[in-house]
Prior knowledge:
Elements: E1 8-12, H1 18-26, E2 31-35, H2 38-46, E3 52-59, E4 63-64, H3 66-74, E5 78-86, E6 90-93, E7 104-107, H4 109-114, H5 116-122, E8 125-128, H6 132-142, E9 147-151, H7 153-159, E10 162-165, E11 175-182, E12 197-205, H8 211-221, E13 226-234, E14 237-248, H9 254-265, E15 267-277, H10 281-289
Parallel strand pairs: 1-2, 1-3, 7-8, 7-9
Antiparallel strand pairs: 3-4, 3-11, 5-11, 6-9, 6-10, 12-14, 12-15, 13-14
Amino acid sequence: MAARKTNRIAFQGEPGANSDTACRDMFPDMEPLPCPTFEDAFAAVENGKADLAMIPIENTIAGRVADIHYLLPESKLHIVGEYFLPIHFQLMVLPGVDISEIKTVYSHIHALGQCRKIIRKHRWKPMVAGDTAGAAKQVAAENDHTSAALAPRLAADLYGLDIVAENVEDTNNNVTRFVVLSKEKTWAPRKTGEQAMVTTFIFRVRNLPAALYKAMGGFATNGVNMTKLESYQLGGKFFSTLFYADVEGHPEDRNLALALEELRFFSREVRILGVYEAHPFRASQSEDEE
């Protein structure tokens, strides 16, 4: 991974957000830098205020983070790593407040949707906040004993709140995948043995009959496993489509090199966004499925 200059890693949200937790988990010796928006987090790396950015790209419950798939191709940043974070929500209140006093609960709209059971059980009024950690910060600042927040455990520590119910999410398979972004183009070296690699790229096929089918054929015939393929309309035009893909392997692997060569033949544009080591979570998922 690229050499560090500021020793800061940017993320979107308030201190204590899940992105903050991901930063501290993966880079415990770096300083997390909170940013109001995803655009600000990207800009922090582009203008040198941070060395890296930790950006959520998809969630097992909520699906893809659409903003990122539009921002990433337009940016000059490169993917240099990934991290999978199991998501848990804690119900937190002002010190000394009992759960029976709660009337209103604040959180990000996705968090409220993922904790419906406890909200309905107690007939609380759900209120949307900008992000989960921001909800905790709001409860602490307003000093209202009838308000609670659904947020990561780290937020309770940072804002001096008590946790009155732990892991209140409706399902236990809530996981967010993050990508680590850098201004420097740094491909992880090709590994031998059991270390899996991931290559992420975007492409646009030529305007030919069955162009996508032909472009994808090289991955099938060369035995390359494609773990993700998504499409996005460009410029509001239905006939102008950008594809985003993750595949297993390194571009220096012969089978992937041949597949990418065939892809380029049928494409107007192919751009590799990153080559990085696969997070161990991927292997655990494969084992669970078996």
